[in-house]
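Reading a protein record of the kind used here takes only a little practice. An example makes this concrete, so a full record is given next.
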Amino acid sequence: MEISIASIKTKTITAKLRRATKIAIKKSMNQVGKEYKTFTIKRFRSQPAEWPPKKRPDGKPILVDTGRLRKDVVHLDMRLIGNTVKVAVKTPYAKFHQYGTSRMPKRTILIPPTKMILNKMKAIMKKELTRRLQ
């Protein structure tokens, strides 16, 4: 035997919950993207220790010749697609730095978020959901 209980109030609450969740996810994912962008810019500027050094007689930092890649890292392309934030470096040759070549070691620019960044992202999402559902 089965009993189905539904009321107008339940349907209204469910609809409100769906709307609030959708808005909260969109807003929090935008904030998450901005956090990741800041993390990537700081990491790029610090010239991470895992990047194999390059001998430069001119004293310029690794990955800087014209400054185009550095400029594009500062202006990362960030798009929200569904519940996913896509982050990309527009410079055509960034992929050679990201993955390396037979003549150049890889110097990874975009990395998966660290545990600290993931925790920050969770906090942002939790705060936004809590705010929307009150």
